[in-house]
Amino acid sequence: MADKATLSYEGSSIDLDVVIGSENEVGIDITRLRGATGMITLDPGYANTGSCTSDITFIDGEKGILRYRGYPIEELAEKSSFMETAFLVLYGHLPNEKELADFENDISEEAYLHYGMKSHFEGFPDNAPPMAVLSAMLNILSCYNTELLTTATEGPKFTEPAAKIISKVRAIAAWAYRTSIGKPFMPPRPDLGYSGNFLHMMFSQQFKLYEPLPEVERALDLFLILHADHEQNCSTSTVRMVGSSHASLFSAVSAGVGALWGPLHGGANCEVIRMLTGIHEHGIKPRDFVEKAKDKNSPEKLMGFGHRVYKSFDPRARILKGQVDAVLKALNISDPLLDIAYELEEMARSEDYFIERNLYPNVDFYSGILLRAIGIPVNMFTVLFAIGRMPGWIANWREMHEQSLRISRPRQIYTGATKRSYIPLGER
Ligand code: CMC
């Protein structure tokens, strides 16, 4: 393959380096472009822009491939745990027994929140959106860990905040939920695994501990594995963007939560359930809904369909679809929303509109049905996505600092008014 690409404009040309990734992805390195030519590139939505090189996650959207650190998502989903996958994403290799035990121990020791944080929770109104609470409280962790506000990528100054965030995000999520329903906080149980402990903090009562079925705990662990990283999406790019100013890891992941919240990104998992519930409760025919989703004059979209990168299928959706059946069977639940989801998927897969635009179910299409089955309230779905994504955000923040990247500062093409003189108030 050529190692230069030539760009010509108005009679002059520049040779640009070509960067080839380990999976033969090709990128034109335009780092020198502005200095040498005065021009910039324009790519709204960054669909053609690589913001970094990365060793963490590989996606081939055309073939429906997703790998963390080289390991296929299908194998991790089948054989790994969320703790093992989190270690892999963060540190680049599968942990040996001691590494895994130490990591789990660090996470377990960090499960408690500082008691002072209770007063912050009490300050939120009951109907506060949990993603707003999560984002605020992750930033508030900075106030209780001022000695950890560094950009260290090795040693305790990195491993401690990383473990704190991965562990405490569960307690923050569970406390936010319990505050919103007027229930007291439930302290973590060190004897439980990552997902079991979260379910306990969410659902245990003072005199009745919640004991999750193994299938439920495993389903949640699997959900978290599938969300652990997804390369340079909107929220991960936000984490890198904020981190690039040398803001702390706490602030960077707090900003990531804000970006994830939107319905076009992580918030889609709530929207899918709202869409399916609306169809079910109002007796709308799935066919009529699909027609609306295709109509440019209608605001409806088929939520949980389409993806910027996947143009064949999202492998996470395929894994989740298989799990949903198993979990519903184990819990002896039959969910009418699942039948509607199957019907919508079948129609969408055979309609030209969706085929031509490569619109397939994404991770959010079936995840809501899974979370609903295991008792997670709809307004907590995106919070669960955020819990799963923490290792990926932290790994990306760390990689960015290891590579000593410059501050993220895109340019623009200005299209506003050219120079004009100020007009005094009475003369306008
Ligand atoms: N329903 C109906 N039409 C759609 C949909 C949809 N869900 N998604 C895209 N389209 C159409 C869109 O109108 C456009 O049509 P046309 O070419 O005629 O103008 C075409 O498909 C291309 O869509 P786009 O919006 O330009 O694609 P994008 O890459 O900018 O956006 C997306 C990707 C995921 C934001 C979008 O597909 C979408 O809004 N999907 C629904 C929300 C959703 O499920 N989001 C979760 C994404 S996966 C989880 C995550 O990682 O965030």
Descriptive tags:
binds carboxymethyl coenzyme *A; Cytochrome p450-Terp, domain 2; single chain; Rubrerythrin, domain 2; mainly alpha; 428 residues; 3-stranded antiparallel beta sheet
What does this structure look like?
- This protein has about 425 residues and is mainly alpha-helical.
- The protein has three domains: about 5-65, Single Sheet (Rubrerythrin, domain 2), CATH 2.20.28; about 75-265 and about 380-400, Citrate Synthase, domain 1 (Orthogonal Bundle); about 270-375, Orthogonal Bundle (Cytochrome p450-Terp, domain 2).
- The chain is about 50% helix and about 5% strand.
- The protein contains 18 helices and six strands.
- It has a three-stranded antiparallel β-sheet. A three-stranded antiparallel β-sheet has the order 4-5-6.
- A hairpin with a 4-residue loop joins strand 4 and strand 5.
- The termini are far apart.
- About 40% of the residues are buried.
- The model has no long low-confidence stretch (mean pLDDT about 95).
- It binds carboxymethyl coenzyme *A.
- Carboxymethyl coenzyme *A (CMC) binds next to helix 17.
- Carboxymethyl coenzyme *A binds near residues 230 and 357.
